[in-house]
């Protein structure tokens, strides 16, 4: 009998990880990418003797698959994906495939529109500090599938996107976290927020009464939708608005972590990462650590020693009394709102890029209160000018990081902060948000 054929669409990190794991599990594997495959990923395929093509799709071969893993970046309305579905071929996401081979390992899975990367990294730091045999996978670092194939661990801390949650059938985290839900990626969900919400709540779809669900009850979208889904797991809410019998809450600048009759307290002054949104991230991560049995003193130690991530509110330099902050990972309006909300000094804001249907009005109040100048960095800045033109008198257009940084420095005075928090995707001028952040940092160094 022939081996089962697994076809993988898209040769990014999740595609390559799945290919390696599928090959290890005895599948015949074929990787097909419509674009060019990066050299490092091509080396992986050659090294593992995996058949691949790039630049086009061999439709007949793809449609002869028993199972298809499609990259999270490929939308369902893609013509080839529709043909695959019409033929009744099983379509899985990378996290679904990896889940089937993880053995007895436990999973903490974290999703949300904002804060998920910080929360995932902090949860991993808590588990690591607490002595767990764990790996940080998903949207950060290695794919879950590659980790399962090459270096299995007892615990996986996974950052998952809504796209990855779209194609799951059995994937079940022991601990699921939804940080918040705001409008993002709506172009992938027929511009219907309810489709996006359903995707996020997929994270709890397969949970049982032994599992834990951590969510932010101060987030109106989560709160409104809790009753619409059949949630069987133990609920562990987080909040800043009231005391809870069980969960994490903040009162008088003290975090309380209440779980199974125990109550740990810690002052938010001791958190290594600052800002209100990071207090939510810290509560969610602490709750996740608690749920997998990390000791209280280790959680306390981890919250004090965590270093924030590159491109996420990253302090770059102080030049002539002007602080430069790289928040290039802010690719939507809500992320920029959080960034502005933490600012204590007058701000020169670098904004703009590829707009995913942004509504900037949510930023107006904070911009009026904190921003003295806006430097636009994108090819089409019309909407930014229309929204803020009447409240910010200093506004200028630039088309690269160097000009943006120089213009911002020109507007700034001692005691100000130059904040790169674009609220947009980066593809008009940069490869990705990392490239945008790197170019910003280089431009600051060149001042």
UniProtKB/TrEMBL annotation:
Where do the annotations place ATP binding? 112-118
Would you say which domain of life the source belongs to?
Answer: Bacteria
Keywords from the named record: ATP-binding, Cell cycle, Cell division, Cell shape, Cell wall biogenesis/degradation, Cytoplasm, Ligase, Nucleotide-binding, Peptidoglycan synthesis
**Every Mur ligase C-terminal domain range:** 311-424
Q: Where is the protein localized?
A: Cytoplasm
* Gene Ontology molecular-function annotations: UDP-N-acetylmuramoylalanine-D-glutamate ligase activity
Q: Which residues form the signal peptide?
A: none
Q: EC number(s) on record?
A: 6.3.2.9
Q: Which residues form a coiled coil?
A: none
Pathway, according to UniProt? Cell wall biogenesis; peptidoglycan biosynthesis
Query: Which Gene3D superfamilies does the entry mention?
Result: Mur ligase, C-terminal domain, Mur-like, catalytic domain, NAD(P)-binding Rossmann-like Domain
Q: What is its main location?
A: cytoplasm
UniProt family annotation = Belongs to the MurCDEF family.
Task: Tell me which NCBIfam families the record gives.
Answer: murD (TIGR01087)
Protein name, please? UDP-N-acetylmuramoylalanine--D-glutamate ligase
């Amino acid at each position: 009998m022939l081996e089962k054929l697994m076809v993988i669409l898209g040769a990014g990190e999740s595609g390559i990880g799945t290919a390696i794991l599928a090959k290890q599990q005895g599948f015949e594997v074929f990787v097909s990418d419509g674009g060019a495959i990066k050299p490092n990923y091509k080396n992986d395929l050659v090294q593992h003797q995996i058949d691949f093509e790039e630049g086009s799709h061999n439709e007949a071969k793809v449609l002869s698959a028993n199972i298809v893993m499609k990259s999270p970046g490929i939308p369902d309305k893609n013509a080839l994906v529709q043909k695959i579905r019409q033929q009744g071929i099983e379509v899985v996401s990378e996290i679904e495939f990896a889940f089937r081979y993880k053995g007895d390992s436990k999973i903490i899975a974290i999703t949300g529109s904002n804060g998920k990367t910080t929360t995932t990294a902090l949860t991993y730091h808590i588990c690591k500090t607490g002595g767990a045999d764990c790996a940080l996978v998903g949207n950060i670092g290695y794919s879950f599938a590659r980790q399962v194939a090459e270096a299995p661990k007892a615990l996986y801390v996974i950052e998952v996107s809504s796209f990855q949650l779209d194609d799951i059938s059995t994937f079940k985290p022991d601990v699921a976290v939804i940080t918040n839900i705001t409008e993002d990626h709506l172009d992938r969900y027929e511009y219907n927020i309810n489709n996006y919400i359903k995707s996020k709540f997929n994270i709890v779809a397969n949970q049982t009464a032994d599992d834990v669900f951590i969510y932010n009850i101060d987030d109106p979208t989560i709160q409104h939708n809790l009753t619409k889904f059949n949630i069987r797991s133990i609920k562990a809410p987080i909040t800043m608005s009231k005391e809870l019998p069980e969960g994490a809450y903040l009162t008088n600048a003290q975090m309380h972590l209440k779980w199974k009759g125990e109550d740990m307290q810690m002052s938010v002054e001791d958190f290594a990462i600052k800002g209100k949104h990071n207090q939510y991230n810290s509560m969610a991560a602490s709750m996740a650590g608690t749920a997998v049995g990390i000791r209280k003193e280790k959680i306390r130690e981890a919250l004090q020693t965590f270093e924030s991530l590159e491109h996420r509110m990253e302090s770059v330099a102080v030049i002539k009394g002007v602080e430069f902050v790289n928040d290039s990972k802010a690719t939507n309006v809500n992320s920029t709102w959080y960034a502005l909300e933490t600012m204590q000094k007058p701000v020169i804001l670098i904004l703009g890029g590829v707009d995913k249907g942004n509504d900037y009005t949510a930023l107006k109040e904070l911009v009026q209160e904190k921003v003295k100048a806006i430097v636009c960095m994108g090819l089409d800045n019309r909407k930014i000018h229309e929204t803020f033109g009447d409240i910010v008198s200093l506004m200028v257009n630039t088309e690269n990081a160097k000009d943006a940084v120089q213009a911002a420095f020109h507007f700034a005075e001692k005691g100000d902060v130059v904040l790169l928090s674009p609220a947009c995707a980066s593809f008009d001028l940069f490869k990705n948000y990392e490239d945008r952040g790197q170019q910003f940092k280089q431009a600051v160094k060149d001042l």
